[in-house]
Write a structure and sequence with these properties.
Layout (H helix, E strand, L loop, with lengths): L2 H8 L10 E3 L16 E9 L2 E9 L2 H22 L7 H7 L6 E2 L2 H16 L9 H7 L10 H7 L8 E4 L4 E4 L12 H16 L3 E6 L2 E5 L8 E6 L7 E7 L2 E7 L4 E4 L2 E4 L13 E8 L2 H14 L1 H11 L2 E6 L4 E3 L1 H4 L3 E2 L2
Antiparallel strand pairs: 1-9, 2-3, 3-7, 4-6, 5-6, 7-8, 8-11, 9-10, 10-17, 11-14, 12-13, 14-15, 15-16
Helix pairs in contact: 2-7, 4-8, 7-8, 8-9
Bound molecules: adenosine monophosphate and magnesium ion (MG).
Magnesium ion binds next to strand 11 and helix 8.
């Protein structure tokens, strides 16, 4: 997770407009329903997983709301320690370090994440691919971005086959078949963390909540005034402008965009979502939003559908019965039938 981008996102805490999805600030009363039950709403933001994390809890008391926020952030920190490739001792770093050498035992949670990632790789016909690590390193967006040479990409191409990631459920081990392979969970980890944070918040007693890890949102229950969580999808070409809004409850909304992490060179936009077939930035979309029951699926599919493009991506969303809002390379918007009657375009 990328440190420099993270600082940039931190700079936008007060207005939250550079992030892929924007909670639409519609006032929710802090308390008081007619039934005299009182709800407290508390929001906190922290910098975790190299990005801005914002969590809101609705609970019967301030103590429960605060405790559920603290637990939510702790949970995300725990996953960062388990999965970050910036942390050399993390489980995932150990898996990458042992590429071509030996299987590495991992926790049930890491194993589950990797299993889910490989499932989505199959759904998306390889568009979503956590073996993309060597190519992500070459482009190094946004730390020290540059266009890699054709030869560098040809070499990297030998190490990005996700079918060479071997999961052994019995032993709970992960083995990367070739030395030089490297798992990158940038396209699924934030959703996974948001999902886990929401689960602990609920366990602690929050009746409603929103966990936003950059552009990956997980909501549950309702706001204090009984309404759903209003969520805005950022316009991919007009910073700070909302393209569309929707109201969400007990589900996840994730957006992948070519405007999140990119650099321009000779008038060409080079961004951080790579097409595993070419190892070049995927060119068919500007932005993809997926609405799904859980944030792990939403995050991974938003990245995968972005690579697949509007036609195959929309067909996949229809097949899976999920909401999708896809802005194609020319700026045209398509919305899957599951989302059509809930997403309001603002333009
Ligand atoms: P997201 O913002 O969720 O779309 O994730 C983008 C991040 O996922 C990138 O910064 C990379 O770390 C990683 N990534 C890039 N291309 C792919 C891909 N085709 N499949 C899976 N992960 C990718
Ligand atoms: Mg993603």
């Amino acid at each position: 997770m990328q440190r420099r981008a993270a600082l940039f996102l931190l700079a936008c805490i007060p207005f939250f407009t550079a992030c892929a999805i924007i909670p639409v600030s519609r006032p929710a009363s802090q308390s008081a329903s007619k039934s005299a039950s009182v709800s407290v709403t508390v929001t906190r933001a922290q910098f975790l997983m190299g990005t801005l994390v914002e969590i809101t809890a609705v609970a019967p008391s301030d103590a429960i709301a605060q405790a559920s926020l603290t637990a939510g952030f702790q949970e995300i920190r725990r996953f960062e320690n388990l999965l970050s490739t910036w942390i050399e001792t993390s489980e995932l770093s150990r898996v990458n370090q042992a590429a071509g050498l030996k299987p590495v035992g991992v926790s049930a949670e890491s194993f589950d994440l990797l299993r889910r990632a490989l499932e989505v790789a199959e759904y998306t016909e390889g568009g979503f691919n956590i073996a993309i690590g060597p190519a992500v390193r070459l482009w190094n967006i946004p730390e020290a971005p540059r266009v890699p040479t054709a030869m560098e990409l040809d070499i990297a191409a030998q190490y990005v086959d996700y079918r060479r990631i071997h999961l052994d459920a019995g032993r709970r081990t992960v083995f990367l078949e070739k030395p030089g392979m490297r798992i990158d969970i940038g396209g699924i980890g934030k959703g996974f963390a948001a999902e886990k944070a929401a689960a602990v918040m609920r366990e602690i007693g929050a009746t409603g909540g929103l966990a936003a890890v950059a552009g990956d949102f997980r909501v549950f229950g309702r706001r204090a005034d009984g309404t759903a969580w209003p969520i805005g999808i950022q316009h991919p070409r007009e910073p700070g402008k909302i393209l569309a809004t929707l109201d969400a409850t007990d589900e996840a909304v994730s957006t992948s965009g070519d405007y999140e992490r990119y650099f321009m060179q000779d008038g060409v936009r080079y961004h951080h979502i790579l097409d595993p077939k070419t190892l070049q930035p995927a060119r068919l979309c500007q932005s993809v939003t997926i609405i799904a029951p859980d944030a792990t699926t939403a995050d991974a599919l938003a990245t995968g559908v972005f690579v697949m493009g509007p036609v195959r991506g929309l067909a996949l969303a229809e097949r899976l019965g999920l909401g999708a809002v896809i802005v194609d390379a020319g700026g045209d918007i398509s919305i899957s039938s599951h989302a059509r009657n809930r997403v309001r375009l603002t333009h």
